[in-house]
Each structure stands twice: as C-alpha cells, then as structure tokens.
Design a protein that fits this description.
Pfam family, one: Lipase_GDSL
Radius of gyration: 19 Å
Bound molecules: 2-acetamido-2-deoxy-beta-D-glucopyranose
Strand content: 5-15%
Low-confidence stretches: 1-19, 22-27
CATH topology: Rossmann fold
CATH architecture: 3-Layer(aba) Sandwich
Largest sheet: 6 strands, mixed
Oligomer: single chain
InterPro entries: GDSL (IPR001087), GDSL_esterase/lipase (IPR051238), SGNH_hydro_sf (IPR036514), SGNH_plant_lipase-like (IPR035669)
Shape: globular
Family: Belongs to the 'GDSL' lipolytic enzyme family.
Subcellular location: Secreted
Mean pLDDT: 91
GO molecular function: hydrolase activity, acting on ester bonds
Order of helices and strands: HHEHEHHEHHHEHHEHEH
Number of strands: 6
Helix content: 25-40%
CATH superfamily: SGNH hydrolase
C-alpha cells in the first residue's frame, strides 16, 4: 500500500530476488524459523473470509491468476507479502488459513488474517462479517491450547512458541473502512487524527500483551502505507489524480506511534524482540521497475475490488497495484525482500530486519 513514485529498486535487488525466490536456492536448507503466526487484514488473508457473509472476499477470478491453484481468497494476482516472507525464511509450505486448516501442522503456523478487519471491532462491518484483531487473537488462543495438549504441557509449549514469528499487519481498515467514512462511522467526529491514532495504539498495545501471555516473543509490527495514494482513494476523492494528503498524514501518525510502541516494548517486555516495518520506506538509489504506480491492473468495481471474470492486464509485474486497493504480487515480493534483508533497504526495518529477528536468541 505504498505509492513510491521515484525511488525504485536497483538491479541488485532483482538478482537477490531471483536467488531467494527460486526454490532451488533454498533447497536442502532447514527453515530459518519453525513457525509463523499471522494477524492481519486483506493484505495477508489467504481464505479466511471465503465462507463469511461479506463483500470483502477475493476467491474469484481474476484474483489468483498467477497463483498455482488459482483464486484462493488472496487479494492479489499471485503471492501475498507474508507468502514471500515465508519463502525468504525457507519455510516449506504456505501458512494455512485458520478457517481451513485441514490436516496441516498448526505448530508450523496459522494465518488468522481477515479482509476488511481492523483493530477496532466495528471497522469494515459495513461490508459484512469480518474477523477483527481481537477475535483473531481469541482464535490463536484456541490454537495455543491445542499445542499445549500436543506438546504435553504449558512450559513445553511456551518453550516452543517463543521461537516463532508473530507477524502483525493491521490498521488500514480502521482508517479506510472506519475513520475515512464519516457517513457510516462517527469516529472522525469523536477524535482528531492524533487522538484516533492514540486510541488505536492503546488497543493494539493491549492486544500485543495478550499475545505475549500466549507465548509470543518475536514480533513483526507493520506500519501503514500511504492510504491517501491508493487508486481507489484518489478516484473517489477526485483530487485531480493527486494523493489525498490529509489521509496520508493521518496514517503516518499511526505508523509513528507504532514505531514508538516497538521501542517501548523492546525496553520493557521481558525477553522479547519487536521490530517495526516502515511500509513507505524503500531503497534510495534506484531505477524505476514499476512503470504503472497509480492505476489498477484489473477492471475495478466502485469498491475498488476487481470485477469478476474479466481478463486483467498482461504486464502485471509492471504494476504496483493489482486492484484499486491491493498491491500486485510483484510489489508484494519487493515489500517482502526489503523487510527481510536490511542490506537492500536499511531504513525499512527498525531496529533489525526480519532475517535478523529470525536468528535473534530469546531466553
Ligand atoms: C470486541 O470483540 C470481542 C470478541 O471478538 C469482545 O470480546 C470484545 O468485548 C469486543 N470489544 C468491544 C469494545 O466491543
Ligand atoms: C518511513 O520512511 C519514510 C521515508 O524514509 C519516512 O518519511 C517516514 O517518516 C518513516 N515512517 C516512520 C513511521 O518511521
């Protein structure tokens, strides 16, 4: 959800990407982490909304056109950012959705993400049923109880769970599907942007403490993109094709507070490590790789999602956006790589990269 226009990636990035992304490159290696648990929205949803009564679902063509098994519920043409992060960490399989675990091993991770969900229970509700962050954590609680049983006791489970990564990428819908919809939600009349971000971060902070009680120690907390630059936002606000700066400013306040929360937790929460991912940072010296930065690849509905069953653009790798809200798989790959490896983009992660977090020893 970024709208970087000038600073682009270097050839270096592509060469690295080519190596990382080839399964052969990772072959024979053991994964860098044993488990990843995902708390998020449509940016990471891989099927949790498919059977919910909601408009916020993507289990239809042309979503998934570049995914091996087609449309799965992922809100993009191919892999999501967390799918790519899993590959970079040499995790063998995709993290399964909570709603459809089948016979997958819950000890390798579960994806609780739900399209349109936010930190606040009501965010995204105008689109139908969603699974807010609070409920995602409750779902994790039931998974942790099962792991305690499987491993034969709470202390064994804790010993195991502390080595997992906890990826939290949420908050966009508390703006897009709440604060920025004054006709449906009253929050923008109750709070100014500073106060609203503060209320969200307070709740977020409590939620992270709850995850801590459930054994989480290594956290990846992802900041918001430039929400005012989403093609859908630009189209709706008719601002001569320009980004809506007030919306960018509001989302930046949230991200700055999230970054401060990371610093606070790192000083305070015993034996844990938090990192912040800056979704609007990127490599500085670079050449343009994405030639279409502000238009969707598929034909979109008024809500910004793809119109079902129409053929999308052929040059998907040139596009930052797939529909009018969600990034293309090519952009997700770029996002994953810059947050995984700090040698590519030192300012994206703080204080350490995902690669370093994976290796970080926890007592
Ligand atoms: C949000 O939903 C959870 C259940 O998912 C519930 O326990 C909690 O009380 C709700 N919070 C508010 C503020 O309504
Ligand atoms: C993220 O990076 C951008 C570009 O370097 C910077 O302007 C912004 O302040 C950063 N955001 C946070 C929350 O640190």
């Amino acid at each position: 959800m970024t709208c970087l226009t000038e600073k682009w990636l270097i050839l270096h990035l592509f060469l690295l990407a080519a190596c990382y992304m080839q399964r052969s490159c990772a072959h024979g290696e053991s994964p860098q982490v044993k488990c990843i648990y995902v708390f998020s929205d449509s940016i990471s949803d891989n099927g949790n909304n498919n059977n919910l009564d909601t408009q916020a679902k993507a289990n239809y063509n042309p979503y998934g056109i570049d995914f091996p098994s087609g449309a799965t519920g992922r809100f993009t043409n191919g892999l999501t950012t967390i799918d790519y992060i899993g590959e970079l960490l040499e995790v063998e399989d995709f993290i399964p959705p909570f709603a459809n675990l089948g016979d997958s091993d819950i000890r390798k991770g579960v994806n609780y993400a739900s399209g349109a969900a936010g930190i606040r229970n009501e965010s995204g509700k105008q689109l139908g049923d969603i699974i807010p962050l609070r409920q995602q954590i409750k779902n994790h609680k039931t998974i942790v109880s099962k792991i305690i049983k499987e491993l034969g006791g709470e202390s064994k489970a804790k010993e195991y769970l502390k080595k997992c990564l906890y990826y939290v990428n949420i908050g966009s819908n508390d703006y897009l599907n709440n604060y920025f919809m004054p006709k449906i939600y009253p929050t923008s009349r109750i709070y100014n942007p500073e106060q609203y971000a503060e209320v969200l971060i307070k709740q977020y902070s409590l939620d992270m403490k709850e995850l801590y009680i459930l054994g989480a120690r290594k956290y990846i907390l992802v900041g918001l993109g430039l929400l005012g630059c989403l093609p859908n936002t630009i189209a709706k606000n008719g601002n001569n094709g320009l980004c809506v700066e007030s919306q960018n400013a509001a989302s930046l306040i949230f991200s700055e507070k999230l970054r401060s929360l990371v610093d606070k937790f790192n000083g305070k929460l015993h034996d844990s490590k938090f990192i912040f991912v800056n979704s609007t940072a990127g490599p500085v010296e670079s050449t343009p790789a994405f030639t279409v930065t502000n238009a969707p690849c598929c034909q979109t509905r008024p809500d910004g999602m793809c119109v079902p069953d129409l053929i999308p653009c052929p040059n998907r790798d040139d596009h930052v956006f797939y529909d009018a809200i969600h990034p293309s798989a090519a952009f997700n790959k770029y996002t994953a790589l810059t947050s995984y490896d700090s040698s590519i983009s030192p300012e994206t992660t703080h204080p350490i990269s995902i690669k370093e977090l994976a290796q970080y020893p926890i007592n």
